[in-house]
Design brief:
By secondary structure, the chain is α+β, with helices and mostly antiparallel strands. It folds into two domains: about 110 residues, no CATH class; about 30 residues, no CATH class. It is about 30% helix and about 15% strand. A four-stranded antiparallel β-sheet has the order 3-2-1-4, sandwiched between helices. A two-stranded antiparallel sheet has the order 5-6. A two-stranded antiparallel ribbon has the order 7-8. The structure holds zinc ion (2 copies). One zinc ion (ZN) binds next to α5.
Length: about 190
């Protein structure tokens, strides 16, 4: 398996739901960590894996057992595959994964082969480093965290910012270029 992103049921902590973890089969077919956490994370960050361990992990990920109970989901490193990952998992995680994939190829002298990251607004693929996660659009995760689903390119970010207070709301939430607060304020001012 090559140039393939794997989302698997790792992570999670005591008393907490599991969270998706991600790994990547690089162009040589080697499984690399691109985001793992919690007790069920396959990798422990910062600890290099022994080759035999890595082979074990690869076997596990590709095992029939994992395929059967859908513990692993695979996405091609193509526009279609990446888009499908962004549709299936939270945007902030996916952006992190795409940045890590770029990071893996850094210094190797080869391109990652990544199509980039699709903008939630315009759908155009961009370099992951150029993308923004608008916090105002986040939602609670049921705990103390915030989930950010929208991943926005710089053009769409600028277009979606209030021209008065510069907060990002998204183009469809702006009234004459103003957020609802600034719009109401202006309406209020003109009543005086
Ligand atoms: Zn855009
Ligand atoms: Zn505003």
């Amino acid at each position: 398996m090559r140039n393939m992103i794997v989302a698997y049921k790792g992570g999670g902590y005591d008393g907490c739901i599991w969270e998706p973890n991600f790994a990547f089969f690089d162009k040589n077919g080697v499984l690399c960590d691109v985001g793992s956490s919690g007790y069920a994370g396959l990798f422990k960050k910062g600890k290099p894996q022994q080759k035999d361990t890595l082979e074990e992990l690869t076997k596990l990920v590709l095992s029939q057992e994992w395929q059967d109970d859908a513990s692993a989901e695979f996405f091609d490193l193509t526009e279609r595959g990446v888009k499908s990952m962004f549709n299936s998992y939270r945007g902030d995680f996916c952006l992190y994964v795409m940045k890590e994939i770029e990071e893996l190829s850094r210094g190797t002298g080869h391109s990652s082969g990544s199509p980039g990251v699709p903008c939630t607004e315009c759908g155009v693929f961009h370099d992951p480093e150029d993308m923004m996660l608008p916090e105002g659009c986040g939602r609670g995760d049921g705990g103390i965290g915030i989930i950010i689903d929208d991943v926005i390119c710089q053009d769409c970010y600028c277009a979606g910012c209030c021209r008065e207070c510069s907060s990002y709301r998204g183009t469809d939430q702006l009234e004459e270029g103003l957020c609802s607060d600034c719009y109401e304020k202006r309406e209020g001012d003109s009543d005086d």
